[in-house]
């Protein structure tokens, strides 16, 4: 059974990670100081090297925490149906509004550097999201034909790229970008490229 001291230590670690997610998301990694995070968490600055070794160690912990929550956001693919695409784009629209997404987008510039400590994690996360979107497309859109030469993997790449691009525009100029309208448009544009499969009975007639 955990001791009171251990429970307090775990709580301090949790508060620091949550504060780091907020601070890094609001200001970016380079503009955020250890003092900013400690003050936001209401914990002494010395707790950060104690728990994480350094600011970079705290960044890695915050990103790992966020990635786990990100993957959990996406449910398993559903059975085929006419609303499969609308359901998927609706879930992506909800995802870009989550606080954790703010951190993921804010750290993109750092993650693009191959020498960044979070580069590998971003590669893995984007790969996982693309794979999930592709699985969803393959299952939920089974009632439709994809355009010639297009694969479910292509759909996954397209949807992830659209989600990141829409979110970036919204973050830069929130008054100029209507998220609901943007994702409704994405749904219409992608949906217009899909052709419903003919039922076997209709094809024979």
Question: Judging by the overall fold, what is the CATH architecture of the largest domain?
Answer: Orthogonal Bundle
Helix and strand composition category: mainly alpha
Helix content: over 70%
At CATH level 3, the topology of the largest domain is: Tetracycline Repressor, domain 2
> What global shape is seen?
elongated
Task: Quote the beta fraction.
Answer: under 5%
Order of helices and strands: HHHHHHHHEHHEH
Summarize this entry quickly:
The protein is an all-alpha fold and 205 residues long. It has eleven helices and two strands. The chain has a two-stranded antiparallel sheet.
What is the element layout, followed by pairings?
Elements: H1 4-27, H2 34-41, H3 47-52, H4 55-73, H5 84-96, H6 99-106, H7 108-111, H8 119-140, E1 144-145, H9 152-172, H10 179-192, E2 195-196, H11 200-204
Antiparallel strand pairs: 1-2
Helix pairs in contact: 1-2, 1-4, 1-6, 4-6, 4-8, 5-9, 5-10, 8-9, 9-10
Would you write up a description of this structure?
With 205 residues, the chain is mainly alpha-helical. It has helices at 4-27, 34-41, 47-52, 55-73, 84-96, 99-106, 108-111, 119-140, 152-172, 179-192, 200-204; strands at residues 144-145, 195-196. It is 70% helix and 2% strand. The protein has a two-stranded antiparallel sheet. One of its GO terms (molecular function) is transcription cis-regulatory region binding. This is TetR/AcrR family transcriptional regulator.
């Amino acid at each position: 059974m955990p001791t009171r001291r251990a429970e307090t230590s775990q709580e301090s670690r949790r508060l620091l990670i949550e504060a780091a997610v907020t601070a890094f998301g609001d200001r970016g990694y380079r503009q955020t100081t250890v003092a900013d995070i400690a003050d936001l968490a209401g914990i002494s600055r010395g707790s950060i090297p104690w728990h994480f070794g350094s600011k970079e160690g705290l960044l890695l912990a915050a990103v790992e925490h966020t990635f786990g929550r990100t993957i959990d956001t996406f449910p398993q693919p559903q059975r085929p149906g006419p609303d499969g695409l609308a359901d998927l784009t609706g879930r992506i629209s909800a995802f870009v509004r989550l606080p954790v997404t703010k951190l993921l987008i804010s750290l993109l510039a750092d993650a693009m550097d191959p020498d960044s400590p979070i580069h590998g994690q971003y590669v893995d996360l984007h790969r996982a999201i693309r794979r999930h979107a592709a699985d969803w497309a393959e299952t939920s859109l089974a009632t439709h034909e994809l355009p010639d030469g297009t694969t479910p993997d292509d759909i996954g790449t397209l949807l992830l790229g659209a989600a990141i691009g829409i979110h970036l525009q919204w973050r830069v100029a929130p008054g100029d970008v209507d998220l609901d309208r943007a994702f409704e448009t994405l749904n219409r544009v992608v949906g217009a490229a899909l052709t419903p499969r003919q039922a076997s009975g209709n094809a024979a007639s």
